[in-house]
Amino acid sequence: MDISEDPNDDKAADQSLFSTAVSEEQLDEARRKTSIKQLFGSSKIFLTPAEKRQQKPELQGNVIIQNRAAEHSRNGTKAMGRFQYEKAVICFTKGINLLPEQTQLYVSRAEAFLQLCDFQSAAASYKQAGILLPGAFSRRLAFIYYLQGQSLLDQSLFLEALEAFSKAAELKPDCRVYKVRSVVCLSAAGRYSDSLKLLNHWMTSGNPTADLYVLRARLHRRLQQTLRCYQDVKAALALNPSCPAAGLLLQQLHEASEASRLKAVDKTLTGQLPQALCMINVALENNPQDPRLHLFRGILYRRLQDFTAAIEELVQAAELREEEEEEEDEEEVAGQSKATDRKSESVSVLQEAELQLVLTYNDFAVQCFSRRLYSEAALLLNKAIEEEKNQAGLYLNRGDCFFQLCDWCFALADYRQAEEMLSPEDPAVRLRLAVVHNTLGCFRFQDGRFQEAVDMFSVAIHYNPAVGRYYESRSKAFRKLLDWNSARDDFICMLVLDPNNQEVPPMLMNLFPGYSVSDVLSSPKGEAIRVQLMDTIQTWSSSSDPHRLSEKLQQINLTNENQSEDPTRAGEELKLCLNPEDLQITVKNLLQVESAVRSLVHNHPASHQTGPGLTRNLPESTGPTSNPTGGNSAADLS
């Protein structure tokens, strides 16, 4: 059958075959644009804004860079996880080259450098990160400097390590570890003074701890500032009593102190007192709170006659021991046995210090006495007697001072006090009592109290019957009392003992007119008196040896003799202002004191009282007169 062709059928067939075919309108529009394009080429000036936005390509370069940087960062992180730190550094560096403003890349690279112990590069990376974020990484950077400094310190590169620790301390000033490490570096480099200066500045600006005190104590010891070292150790123990470093350092100081003390003992035993003093000074620097050492140094100062320093040391020794006693009293019952032992030692040292102080006052007084500083000597002896009231030698010495000061009654009181403590036959006391009573007898004679004068002269003769001047004075006093027999007896005694006395001729003429000295001495009465006098003197001499002191006086010691191996505990004799030899010479000089007294009173008739019962205006007579006031002119020699 013939099939007729329909145009509409052809059109429908084309649409069915080419379903994506454009419409005629679209074709026309395309032709129009093509014609314009052919006319103006590739110009886009005629495009609409929407068309322009549609045809503007995206900035694909930035995206690519970011993507590549992120990829490098991921690779670096993976490498870090695999401990491939060098590869990680390379990856992070590539990322930084692509994105130099990415902070995290610097931080990651710094950590990779840190794992490689490349502290310098790690610090540089953190510095660059700090530029992007100021102050964000200062603590981490300080820690890196600390690690760098520690590594340099282990390599003995002390100055380089100091620089690293200083940077760390600047970044983190509140961290003490960094400052301590700086001090350690200076110390290791031998710059102890700089190290100590830095540490002092740090400790004054903050709250010091026990460890810091220990560190400074070690620096002081390096600089041979032992005393300051000890003070810092004690301060450390006060803050932390269980600090092991401070305890060990304190033990070392005590051992060094004991070694120096033993050397000082050796030097003292050999008589090298200045060298011993140097050694005990070293011992005290290592242990300045030990009262035994202060006691030792006080004794050395006394023996070197530096009495002021000796008194200071002995007083300090006593004070330190008293403080220790107070601490021991507060100890718990659990340590009572040990505390008892320590307290026993405490009492021993305290007593020793007190007795040594008495000796020092006495020796100082003896020195002042030798320089005629009698008032100062008396004051020192007053202090000594306040400390120790049972030392006879102290009263003897003070009596000598009062005697030289013309305080006769005070001198007599001290001599009598010494007589009660010593043997009545002791020459040190007898000679002094004789002189004082003779002097007081002269005062009584000048006052016209002749019987009292006779009594005083009689006591003087009792204590020392071998002095002709005493018999002369009593003879003159008897003449004033018209007791001619007693006056003649005393005159004969004077002739026996002192035939060259200038008063012999006038007294002989008044008591034995018409007779010579030989006639008087050869008479029966003269012979009898001479024999009796010699017997009396012989008896007195046998009991009063002028060349020795009594046994009791010689035993006035500081400590027991069984402790003599330690020079600080050796028995020492109390020094007297006048030793037995000098006393014999001084007695002769003191017997002439009447003239000086008379001169003094004559020039100062209203002088005030210097002792009990001494207020008087003496007459201008020159002493017991040689002219009798009455009685027979003839002498009875029978």
From TrEMBL:
<feature type="region of interest" description="Disordered">
    <location>
        <begin position="319"/>
        <end position="340"/>
    </location>
</feature>
<dbReference type="Pfam" id="PF13432">
    <property type="entry name" value="TPR_16"/>
</dbReference>
<feature type="region of interest" description="Disordered">
    <location>
        <begin position="603"/>
        <end position="638"/>
    </location>
</feature>
<dbReference type="InterPro" id="IPR011990">
    <property type="entry name" value="TPR-like_helical_dom_sf"/>
</dbReference>
<feature type="repeat" description="TPR">
    <location>
        <begin position="291"/>
        <end position="324"/>
    </location>
</feature>
<protein>
    <recommendedName>
        <fullName>Tetratricopeptide repeat domain 16</fullName>
    </recommendedName>
</protein>
<feature type="repeat" description="TPR">
    <location>
        <begin position="434"/>
        <end position="467"/>
    </location>
</feature>
<feature type="compositionally biased region" description="Polar residues">
    <location>
        <begin position="606"/>
        <end position="632"/>
    </location>
</feature>
<dbReference type="InterPro" id="IPR019734">
    <property type="entry name" value="TPR_rpt"/>
</dbReference>
<keyword id="KW-0802">TPR repeat</keyword>
<feature type="compositionally biased region" description="Acidic residues">
    <location>
        <begin position="321"/>
        <end position="333"/>
    </location>
</feature>
<feature type="repeat" description="TPR">
    <location>
        <begin position="142"/>
        <end position="175"/>
    </location>
</feature>
